[in-house]
């Protein structure tokens, strides 16, 4: 009955890596940008702060879009699981949608609120996903093992 466990682990690893990688890249770019805007860099080979900024915003847009797609897939795959878990996935999706929307319209870091730039929102999503994956490790839905999923109204 523990057939999908490797897939769950692979998914968990992939999701966490994507999240972490995105956070690290963005944080690094933000640090570079702050350093350059506070004191003009004499290093001519480095990208302009404006260039760095629009690149970082583009990347943030792309990362949040990927996370949005992942959350949507997860939400549709876990119908029939306890509603508390489904709610957390829905909350994760709305956080990601909010982040994506903010990055999509921002022209510079100044356009973003400090709450968008803080890492707490992504940490919340990571916690929710950990919880979901831990649950799945211990309670693999039977329908995942025996064929097409038919969502049921009642909680498992």
From TrEMBL:
It is found in: Lipid droplet. InterPro entries: Perilipin (IPR004279). GO terms for cellular component: cytosol; lipid droplet. The keyword Phosphoprotein does not apply. Keywords: Lipid droplet. Its main location: other. GO terms for biological process: lipid storage; positive regulation of triglyceride storage. The keyword Isomerase does not apply. It comes from the Eukaryota. Belongs to the perilipin family. This is PLIN3 protein. The lineage of its organism: Eukaryota, Metazoa, Chordata, Craniata, Vertebrata.
């Amino acid at each position: 009955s523990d057939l999908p466990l490797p897939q769950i682990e692979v998914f968990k690893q992939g999701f966490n890596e994507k999240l972490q990688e995105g956070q690290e890249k963005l944080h690094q770019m933000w640090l570079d940008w702050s350093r350059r805007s506070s004191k003009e860099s004499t290093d001519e080979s480095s990208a302009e702060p404006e260039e760095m900024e629009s690149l970082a915003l583009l990347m943030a847009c792309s990362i949040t879009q990927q996370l949005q797609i992942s959350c949507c897939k997860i939400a549709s795959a876990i119908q029939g699981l306890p509603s508390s878990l489904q709610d957390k996935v829905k909350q994760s999706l709305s956080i990601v949608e909010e982040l994506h929307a903010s990055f999509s319209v921002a022209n510079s870091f100044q356009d973003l609120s400090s709450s968008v730039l803080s890492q707490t929102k992504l940490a919340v999503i990571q916690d929710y996903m950990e919880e979901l994956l831990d649950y799945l490790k211990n309670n693999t839905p039977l329908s995942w093992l025996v064929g097409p999923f038919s969502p049921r109204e009642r909680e498992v």
